[in-house]
Amino acid sequence: MANEQYAFLRRSELPTTTALQTALDNDPNFTLTIDAETDLNATVGFVPCVICGVESGVEIDFDDSPELIAQFGSMASDRDCCLVFRWGGDMAECACAMVLSYALAKYYNAIVSYEGEPPPENLDVFRDETIAIHSDAKLTLP
Question: From CA 78, how far away is CA 74, in angstroms rounded?
Fold first, then answer.
């Protein structure tokens, strides 16, 4: 069964992959590189990443359909697009989704929801959850 995490953004704040990578590179808590060829405005499918020096990735779908935004109603607030992260049981893929979602929340004002649940209380809680997943993923990597 796939897991889904939603990052609702204002299209005007959706970063380029280069800008997102710069934000990731400047965050001392995480080691993740997203494929430079990824266009976040149009991505649909698996996006290669390197986490802690190991090749992995996560499925990311850009969605700006009014139906998806309406489905999440007030949670999406004034956001008009979404990056949907999808992964199976692989902890490295989960960590990719968490780190990317956290960076979007911290640096680009994304509202993030796992499976439609309410967003984390605040960025500190989200950071701590992401650090825990990142640490767990490192234990499973070769």
Answer: 8
